[in-house]
Design brief:
The chain is an all-alpha fold and 137 residues long. It has one domain. It is elongated and about 55 Å long. α2 packs across α4. The protein has 4 helices and no strands. The longest helix is centred in the first third of the chain and has 37 residues.
Length: 137
């Protein structure tokens, strides 16, 4: 029983991590690729800051529903809810609390993640650009 619960718990964490990573990668890369095609903003700090904020927005938007469902499913017995499965939890939440209930906690997460992305992504991009440039010579 202990091993099965841990495997389930870690598989949901892997899924949540994949959603976070998909959001920040898609957001940052989308802005950079779109800008490269159409040149809305010159390459520089402003482009990286905008791309980081979009990455934080998508990362938060992708991950909050999965995190909310996981938290509600795990805390259900203490709250008086007895869900038979994660799917049952999701359907029950949708029917009783509506679609927007899945996005509870979005603003605090975005406010926490956006400064982190703005401070980490631009230096990371510049270091990877310089390392790629250095490897060509």
């Amino acid at each position: 029983m202990f091993i099965e619960n841990n495997i389930y718990y870690f598989s949901t964490l892997f899924f949540l991590g994949a959603l976070i990573n998909a959001g920040n990668t898609l957001g940052y890369d989308f802005i950079k690729t779109t800008n490269k095609k159409h040149i809305y903003i010159n390459e520089g700090p402003s482009l990286h800051i905008i791309a980081s904020i979009v990455a934080a927005f998508l990362s938060s938007t992708f991950s909050v529903p999965a995190d909310f469902i996981m938290t509600r499913y795990q805390a259900g017995p203490q709250m008086g809810y007895h869900y038979t499965s994660v799917l049952n939890c999701t359907v029950t939440l949708f029917r009783t609390e509506g679609l927007f209930s899945f996005f509870r906690g979005w603003i605090p997460l975005f406010m926490r993640v956006a400064p982190l992305y703005v401070s980490c992504f631009p230096p990371w991009c510049h270091s990877s650009c310089w390392s790629h440039f250095a490897l060509q010579f």
